[in-house]
Design brief:
mainly alpha, 434 Repressor (Amino-terminal Domain), 6 helices
């Protein structure tokens, strides 16, 4: 699959691409829209809208869970660690020696 230049795309185009990919995942799993709706507890209309690129985050999560694709969230919004400056600050405050017993 080709890497898309998302910055060159409109939000509508990106939404449609996401919808298209959701549909491909459903078809790959050999599920009907009705089966997905029943399995996820969302309406069939919501499944259809999601495949057109109109989906709320909560429903997107339900669909990703159904398709076994929740792991893509780490790629979608990766967890960021602390900045190098903050790490330096923390390391400078780390205890270097144990204090004497009183």
């Amino acid at each position: 699959m080709a890497n898309l230049d998302y910055y060159a795309m409109t939000n509508t185009a990106i939404s449609k691409e996401i919808g298209s990919r959701l549909k491909l995942r459903r078809l790959y799993k050999n599920l009907t829209q009705e089966q997905v709706a029943i399995n996820t507890g969302i309406s069939i209309g919501t499944v259809k809208n999601a495949e057109k690129g109109s989906v709320k985050l909560f429903n997107l999560l339900a669909l990703l869970r159904e398709y076994g694709e929740l792991n893509v969230l780490d790629l979608f919004i990766p967890e960021r660690g602390p900045s190098p400056l903050l790490l330096m600050k923390w390391n400078s405050k780390l205890r270097k020696k144990a204090s004497k017993r009183r």
